[in-house]
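U., I forgot to send this yesterday:
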Amino acid sequence: MPGVLDGLRIIDFGQYIAGPLLAELLAQNGAEVVHVDPPGGPALVGLPDSWLNRGKKRITLDLQRKDDLQTASDLIRSADVVIENFRPGVMDRFGLDARRCRAIDPRLIYCSLPGFAHDDPRAPLAAWEGVVLSATAGYRRLREHWDWKARTNIKMDDAGRPLFTAIPMASTAAAMLGAFEVVTALLQREKTGVGARLEIPLSEAMLQIVGFHLEMPDFVGPRLDMPKPCLGSFRCADGRFIDHVSYPRFLEKLLTAAGVWDEWVAAGLGDILTVFGDPDLGARAERAFAELIATRTADEWESLAIELGIPFAAVRTPEEWLSHDHAHRSGAVVTVDDPEWGPVTMAGAALHASLNGTAITGRSTLDADRAEILEDLARCPASAPNTASGNARRTDDSPLSGVSVVEFSQVVAGPIAGRILADYGADVIKVSNPSPHGNNGFHGSYTNRGKRTVSFDLEDPDDNRILRAAVTDADVVIQNYALGAIERYGFGFDELRETNPNLVYLSMDAFTRFGPWRARRGHENQAVAATGLSFRYGGAGGWPIYQPYLISDVGTGIMGAFGVVLGLLHRRKGGAGQHISTSLSSIATLNQALYLFDGPECHSAAEPTGSDALGWSALQRLYRASDGWFFLGARRDRLEELADALGTSSADTDLSTHGATAAELEYHFRMGTRERWQALLAERGISVQPVREINDVAHDATWHDRGVLRYGVNGEGLDRSPILGFLPRPWPISPRSSADPGPLGIDTAAMRTELSSDFASTNQGVHNAQH
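Result:
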């Protein structure tokens, strides 16, 4: 099937992860992507390159040479979109910056993904992934667990040390947000004839992930466990682990099926809500549950849980996920023919559309497409300077103004997708579940700002009819219920498209709508368990540890919003509505794709894992100064300058994370403060970034000045609290999005009147037509 972006040309100057991944997401959806490599090849070679640059044409250009610089300029003038992720100012030095390029072609969409924004004082920093994560509280600190949660291999003397992860959370989030903004800009260009200048700093993309914890500071919090017993990872009879969500109805269902519910009731543990709120009862329940799980194997428990339909998953290794039948049949992983490694299994597509295909093909080798690219430029020389269309409707509209969305979603991922669409101008009606068994998750600015929220009961015939009329006129429907749940009430895609063939319908679930697990329930922790992501934190033989942030939930919300604007663009070009889907497990796979490879001739990149990991090498890792922890980010060619600054030897070539060089650096760094090392090494182009707590991030003056953080009412109803703001953009922000969303369901009465009136008008029109 054709991709939505067929016919569009993208020039990708990206290096490392964020820029190339953004371009690869666009290539999957049909865009022609030309990747520009520097002399010597990409920053990430081998297997990472086979993932990041698949499906692209490649040309090597030395921008220091006049003829290559001219070729780069010609490529930009032939493009719809330019992507770069250098530090601010780098492209300016070559005359390829957004201002000059867009002056030549106002239709150009120019997207930059620096570590820090151009007007952020930290912009000059070499923004390695570890530097960005340290600046944004990406490395949460280890704390002692609750007594009944002491089932981990983290030592007490490690308390207070940052929990390192090699997962490139900031880069992946920036790439997905960039893909959403690029397609949103393409939609706006269809209306106005004008392109856009986009900047998505990695640090500010990471705030999208951190933002949930600004509003819900006690969710997980400084501990690495959840504030409920029977929730999380437990060891089974075979030494493997399972991960369980302890909603009362699911816990009772599991205990009943296991034949121990009567014992729990007799022991005074039958009132689950009381147990959750009482530390002593919680400790007893925790021990009893751990003893129960230890009586069967992980596969036995998972099979029972699937039969019962409860959120539950065996903790797999990444290798097990790569070879799993569901991973392949759902498209979460795919086997690609690579010119260097042969058949390689790697992360697949995270988005599926019923009318538009996603194309995943192998990469080209370095400079392999030079002749074709240059011939194409010669046949179609860069056009004369373009001008904006004179038929622009209004250039100050939000891109999604006029788009109506009905959102049937709960918890985190679905509401985030709706919130992002509202942030960009869509009129979003969020339908919450008034049932006492409903799980509407978390309510606040982070999930529901910019929306009109209503409490309608799908089981009530009158409410159901009113909502059916609303979705008949809607542009978009979002839902993130388990397969079959929303369909029971007549709001599945197949039924809605009969009356609304132009509907863009987004489904978000745990394990995708394809494959043998398509109907399985699950949340963040089941998705990361099943795909091997939580295993990466614990390391081989270690207890799986909750990653400190809801990276799959947030990423699924962003990817869902990306899918919606792709669907809207397809429709804008004359296509019909369609069913788009993404999942927590697909995003969990994408988050670890940098290390997720399998094939007869390939070996995955070395990845630091486990609770004792500190970084990738002696020059890219966490160190402790006299006043706290920091991340050192230095290139290998700066080793001599680093040694000179510290007054130590640079002769040792052992640059492993715990080798001789690291040990010597550890010794010297403990003798000075973080501020001292920052100032001393900045002069040499070496980055030192103190590891920050969430509270430091929450009140960061620069981010408040830029509006990416602001003070407002948080999800717990507290006023003047730090909450997530808005990424700077070339379009206005809706006043509704800037306001306090109020209590969930605040718009019910007004919307009931409005939608009832619409329903009556629709029925009257049908009656008149029939008579």
